[in-house]
Amino acid sequence: MQTVTSIKELRERLQAERRAGKRIGLVPTMGNLHQGHLRLVESAVKNADFVVASIFVNPLQFGPTEDLERYPRTLEQDQEQLQAFGCDLLFAPQEQEIYPQGRDGQSFVEVPGISDLYCGSTRPGHFRGVTTIVNKLFNLIQPDVAVFGRKDYQQLHVINRMVEDLSMPVSLIGVGTERADSGLALSSRNGYLTAEELAIAPALYATLKTLARALEEGASDYPALIEQAQNDLEKAGFMRDYIHILRRSDMLAANADDRELVIIAAAYLGAARLIDNIEVSL
Ligand code: PAF
């Protein structure tokens, strides 16, 4: 697997593959890869002839008081794992290569409405940063297919909207969440948890499962169910951010007629903010 850091090298390398008629797959990441990312690479290998991964800790999607500086950077280890899982090319640029106009001078792409809800409400500007970098990566790599994790449920929905709204010629694949035996969704940010917090963290998914079961059994007082779930999380040691019961199609508040639902949650535990979700069909 070759690693390139410049746009020029990236384009030259991809031109040769495209001329050879290869179907290009992209796995965008911020590095510090875990098993969840490697499942994305496996999916890309299955669905494309030439797989590109990107590693770029995108400053535009971090708020001013967030963890940009301490976000784990483990390039060598990531390269080894990507190579072992069949990735063909790694694009690992520096910030100047991606944002030569600086963080504030950069043009951006924004999906209105949904980008300001849920994680977008707690993290203003986050999704604008995500759609801007993903759009840029799509323009640079021109993938036939791009693979994202379903753990970032709202992110995948926002990127889907961007692709549809702007008629981007790329197919998106969403890959299911990879979990530890405890049920905890794998995330690079789990590394911020102490041993004690790691023992508490699985309560997030356990709480979502309990809520999903209640819905399947016919409970319909959504505000009361959510309040109960928030209390359970607080008892376990979390600080609340949000829990929402949504319609899957547009990620807006579900009502009594909706059958295809998703419950999304975010909660703080020590230095980490964890997110998770579960789909429910009634
Ligand atoms: O999911 C992530 O790791 C990031 O949000 C992404 C899609 C790589 C954009 O920086």
UniProtKB/TrEMBL annotation:
InterPro entries: Cyt_trans-like (IPR004821), Pantoate_ligase (IPR003721), Pantoate_ligase_C (IPR042176), Rossmann-like_a/b/a_fold (IPR014729). It catalyses: (R)-pantoate + beta-alanine + ATP = (R)-pantothenate + AMP + diphosphate + H(+). It is found in: Cytoplasm. Its EC number is 6.3.2.1. NCBIfam families: cyt_tran_rel, panC. The reaction proceeds by a bi uni uni bi ping pong mechanism. This is Pantothenate synthetase. It comes from Marinobacterium lutimaris. The gene is panC.
